[in-house]
Specification:
homodimer; alpha/beta; DNA-binding
DNA sequence: CAGATTGTGTAGAACGTTCTACAATCTCTT
DNA sequence: AAGAGATTGTAGAACGTTCTACACAATCTG
């Protein structure tokens, strides 16, 4: 069809020629570095505008900064991650940094492959959200590029950490249910995986649950079903807990998405919510707020966590080497899936 | 704290030195190009393995391929996009290509900025999902880098198109509702925006709706509320339609997420579903299948669409210049939100 | 056995930036 | 008037690849 003459890119050399200066001068203007007069700055900027020049980020990446931040997720579908992404993006909105998201699935192998791919693409910083790749691999990554880990409570010198106070979050839930009169309060968690992480969010949440139950002298009522944070996992955990003779009157699901699975299990068994069973989720995702669900959940301010991650990352890029841990305070959002336990 | 000696990257020169050959030879082995003996291939590959060498994608990008595909979305939260992403990723799984996702929001300005950013990062191909940036900007983008547009039915020589047969999908919905006995079938759509696109999915769907209504001699019952494909938009559209005196007995929402908003409106008005109102969504996202919702919806095989997009992109990258349009056949998934209309 | 052909390897110039040296000019000091 | 700074500009070497052009050797052809 048409000749398809690939339009050659406008480069810094074109700008330099147009403005009648050296490429070095243009580069200085671009980075507003020292050693350039006001007059030249103006001339160069005018040329840039006239030619529609945009710096080639990949080329920049070869020498230092590519102005790209990578966000590594296991799964793009978790709406909570949308909040985190928005936080990161908003925090970087006024800068030249661009956020690119990689979705690697849950497999540690794929995740570390993706992290490598991001490094190979000269990214300036990485945000790893609840990575399933091993801790030593994360540390190796963080030695190469500034890195923030979101979710896991395990810290290390090499990376910064942004977590939710999952211990407090779990306490909020248990306290709420106890106040309503519940005693047989069960919990759905996720099974421990390999990878040397000892304080994943789900572990801290179930520790918090246990501890809160203990505080209320309900140690005997502790029941935990560990599957995975997914609809299917929630369903299996729900069946496991609800099929028992000493059926709980309330279930604290470790994640909203798992709560949805519990909901399915409850429907199957003909249980009414909150009449027969109270249910609480975690994350306060959009799923929790949709009308027919209206799930009581714990909000962990994903947007703030993302924004914090971006801030820490920039600090690291600017040379901070000491490691930082920030912890966000969770809030309980009470909706319609919790109420008093059924009469005996 | 620790000295933090940035570990220098293993480069092609290191491999060459280790194997006792030239960098050109190593490069040939990497690209398995012509002109290299079996013996040398083996020697180089062994060196690569021993040194743990990984090619620097950004540097590669400066000369041709960066082995990176960009997927541009308006919003990471739409679960339908998760299907598309999985399709693209799976189709490229056996290759060296990596998929990176950019989430630009709905603003055309931000979208085209992100598309530019992807070009600046030397991406080899772009998949634009229902872009809101103007058609001429998409065409300009496509002139620079192989591009596939998913969703919009408007075609152009410069890019390939992957669409769902939204016309047929709308017909499936209307036929289903008419078969159940409905006549007052309303539709929620999205307001037309700027940008020279004339056949966005929502437009084709509402055309299909109108046409199907006509086929059933129900032209007089056509009611369309155009807001946006979002929970809030669905709510507003739902209120608009349900507050009328001639309240519809069924609503065909243009997207699952909008259907959820309609659901909220119906709950507010005390309408039972499907007793008082039948409701159908579109996209068959995970939201549709969760237990308390159980939404009848139209499945448009997002995974296949993504895989197709990846295939078309690779063909373009390999030199095809003729433009291709592929259309997927939608399927109606009947769940519990549709039933016979209420008695008079 | 001369010339042509094929096979295998290397040198070195791109690609578009950044940034270290250094050169040239100006402005003060004394 | 002669340095000493300060200011403003430029040349050119990186960064890690790819790929064209060419050199050399081995093999084939008549």
């Amino acid at each position: 069809m048409k000749p398809q003459i690939a339009v050659r890119r406008v480069t810094i050399a074109d700008v330099a020629r147009h403005a009648g200066v050296s490429t070095a001068a243009v580069s200085k203007v671009l980075r507003n570095a020292y050693g350039v007069s006001a007059e030249m700055t103006e001339r160069v900027q005018s040329s840039i505008a006239q030619l529609g020049y945009r710096p080639h980020a990949a080329a920049r990446g070869m020498r230092g900064r590519s102005f790209t931040i990578g966000l590594l997720l296991d799964n793009i579908r978790n709406p909570f991650y949308g909040d985190i992404l928005d936080g990161v993006t908003d925090a970087l909105a006024k800068t030249d940094f661009q956020v690119l998201v990689g979705s690697a699935g849950f497999s540690p192998r794929h995740q570390s492959r993706l992290a490598d791919a991001m490094i190979d693409r000269a990214m300036d910083g990485l945000v790893l959200v609840a990575p399933s790749m091993s801790r030593s691999q994360v540390i190796a990554t963080a030695k190469t590029v500034p890195t923030v880990v979101v979710g896991h409570h395990d810290t290390a010198d090499e990376y910064d950490s942004v977590v939710d106070d999952d211990m407090a979050g779990a306490a909020l839930v248990v306290d709420h249910l106890v106040t309503l009169g519940h005693q047989r309060i069960a919990h759905t968690s996720a099974t421990a995986t390999e990878g040397q992480w000892t304080r994943r969010p789900e572990q801290v949440r179930s520790d918090g649950y246990r501890q809160a139950m203990h505080r209320h002298h309900l140690d005997g009522a502790v029941r935990i079903a560990a599957t995975s944070y997914s609809e299917e996992g929630g369903y299996r955990a729900g069946r496991e807990l609800l099929d028992r003779p000493d059926r709980p009157t309330a279930i604290f699901a470790g994640a909203d998405i798992a709560a949805v699975g519990v909901l399915r299990a409850a429907y199957e068994l003909g249980l009414r919510i909150p009449g027969d069973l109270s249910l609480v989720g975690y994350d306060n995702t959009t799923i929790a707020s949709i009308a027919p669900i209206n799930l009581t959940s714990v909000d962990q301010a994903g947007h703030d966590m993302g924004a914090t991650a971006a801030r820490l990352l920039r600090e690291r890029m600017d040379g901070r080497s000491r490691s930082v841990l920030t912890s966000a305070a969770p809030r309980l959002i009470i909706r319609n899936t919790t109420g008093p336990p059924p009469g005996p």
